[in-house]
Amino acid sequence: MSIVAPKMLSIDKTCGRPVQTHGRPIDKFPVEARDAFYVAILAAAAIYFLIFPVWRAQFLLEIWPTEGWNAYYQDAAGAGRKIYPGAGELIVNNYPPLSFYAIGYLGKLFGDNLFVGRTVSIIALLCVAIEIFCAIRLLVGSISGAAVGALWYAAIMAHNLTTYIGTNDPQIAGEAIMGLALVWYLARRKARKPVEPALLLMVVAGFWKHNMIGIPLTAIAWLVIQDRRAAVRPILVSGAAVCAGLLLCTFIFGREFLENLFTPREYAWGHVVGKIGHLQWSALALLICVTWAWGHRKMEVARFVALYVAMSMLACILQWLGDNVFLNAEFDLIIALAVGIGLAFSRNGSTQLANRVGAGLVRGLLTISLIARLVISDRQESAFVLISPEFRASFYARQKDALEDSARIASIPGLVFCIDNKMLCRHAGKPFSADDFRIGQMIATGQATASEISALLRQRRISVFAEVDSPRAGQIDPSIVRFWWPATAQQPQ
């Protein structure tokens, strides 16, 4: 399929410049065909990894500890009840209000808020992938690069951050709103129009979920870098919108809004150390983005994506300082890396490696290495869904256990505190009376001792329900090694 050519110049269709072949074989396969193949295998990987979270969403099992917590406040918002508790209560709501009302009212139309929130999460993931596609198209115009970035995002989220996909949690939907704002920002910048509307949409996204700061920080910083004087107006407008939103929420919900939003939390570098290891899954993408951006640092688009990745990494690390901040802190970074991967795929023709082996081969190596990092993993839940009746049956068994526990809780008179699984109490019809996070932070920040909390629970006649083996979807073993070789499973001591 190839002929050996002497040292000559060929045209790299990615960047439109001559590239020396150094006597290597000239590949007769069209660039478009190769790129379509790379996109196809990434699409297959994304679809494969999505099988598990989409299938899992049907079960009445707590996938992530915030699911029952969110559902309680969504129920309250949909019913017109108070969503920000008083300072003396053992529950807290440190999220902004928009997601609770959106899901709460959708739940009144379509059924249980739990499953509405899970459906919204899946739809939002696809929306973010589309927004990544659009962002890359606006930055470099490449369709294949845009598809690679978008599909890699969908694949890594569905596989390595699966506890948030198809889960009743507002984070992914918030990222979809923020991603739309990013696309709008880039489009208006490209058209030389004022960016204030896009910045205002970022403010709205912040009142859906308040920890998505990577994109706003990048947008503001880029305005300042480009033209400090012209950046003053957009900064003032967006800052005024944030203040107005906080004042409006305080007026509507009372001072409890601010008290809940700024609930005391323990901060320590040890929390970062305990979570930073999860970045191993995106480390290859980070290396690709940093290497590409440095090699193309004279290009404005490379400097933009370098700033975007840096701001998102900074936001992730700062959030991980806080206790009980989980993997959703890195979602901004994953989106930034997806955009960077799309740019690296689209504009690699001027690199030294591309000059030696060809831009097409570089794109192939990039794609295969990213897919290999995703696939080479002991966790293969989608495979279990497809090939293991025992795995599928375990979810039905867990759901049966959860329903039995809920029936037991319903039979307990008065208030009940379900430790580490609020969904059980909610399904049993018990009001939300005590929260693990609130109690844990009261102890961690010195507001109360464990014995004082126990006395407070007794005083308020709140029974405690705790299961050592709580029915939760995330506790089912997805190890492919232990599936094929059960002897490798750890034996009880």
Structure explained in plain terms:
This protein is mainly α. The chain has two domains: 32-56 and 94-377, no CATH class; 389-488, no CATH class. 64% of the residues lie in helices and 4% in strands. It contains 22 helices and six strands. The protein has helices at 31-56, 66-78, 98-110, 113-140, 143-160, 171-190, 196-206, 214-226, 228-253, 256-261, 269-275, 280-295, 300-320, 331-346, 352-357, 359-375, 381-387, 389-410, 422-427, 436-444, 450-459, 480-484; strands at 2-4, 9-12, 17-20, 25-27, 415-418, 462-465. Strands 1-4 form a two-stranded antiparallel sheet. Strands 2-3 form a two-stranded antiparallel ribbon. It has a two-stranded parallel ribbon with strand order 5-6. Strand 2 and strand 3 form a beta hairpin. Helix 12 packs antiparallel against helix 16 (359-375). The longest helix has 28 residues, at 113-140. Residues 1-27 and 488-493 have low confidence and may be disordered.
Low-confidence stretches: 1-27, 488-493
Question: What's the overall geometry?
Answer: globular
Distance between the termini: 60 Å
Q: How many β strands by DSSP? A: 6
Average pLDDT number: 86
What strand line-up does the widest sheet have?
1-4
Structural class of the secondary structure composition? Answer: mainly alpha
Helical residue percent? 55-70%
Order of helices and strands: EEEEHHHHHHHHHHHHHHHHHHEHHHEH
Biggest sheet character: 2 strands, antiparallel
Number of domains: 2
Could you tell me the radius of gyration in angstroms?
25 Å
Give me the number of helical elements. 22
What fraction of the residues are assigned to beta strands by DSSP? Answer: under 5%
